[in-house]
Here is the input.
Amino acid sequence: VTAPAAKRNAVRLELARFNFARGMYVETLGVLATIASDAPQMENTAEFRSLRGAASYLMDDFEQAATDLDSPILSSYADAALWRGALAATQGHWSDAVPAFARVGYLIRDYPRPLKVKFGLLAAETAINSREYAAAKTYMDFVDQSGPDTTEDARLAYLKGRMHETKHEVEQARVQYDKAIRGGDPETAAK
Here is the structure.
């Protein structure tokens, strides 16, 4: 980044945000690593921690994501709570995910479609696992209205099947599981 030394890291942070917004998470992490190397104190800012935590989560580096997202600096940030909930759900820590989605799940609608669907599916799965069927249905309807792709639609059908199964609605569960299997996503079909 070509910028005066005093403004260089501010410009780099802007570049990291730009990369993140375009789904370029590896590049985001690279720019953030450069910032941390040049100005280690910037690692202790909310914006740096939240950006690195979110990018790390999306790159499946859950250890780094947890380190950043659990930082006390982010304790009052609702968006960070949503990412912590997604991280907990991804790792199957339902008891940690439930309060996060209950408190800040409404923020999901403000995210770009790919994250909106990803978080909506995680929130629905969390609600199913905690037997909160009305919340699960709300999240699944939301995902359905967000235009899921083929893989996401198969995952949605699987979750609908799980909800019906946990409610002992065997025939409805079978229909949804069949749809999930035929959905073209091998990972979902294997479940």
About this structure: The longest helix spans residues 113-129.
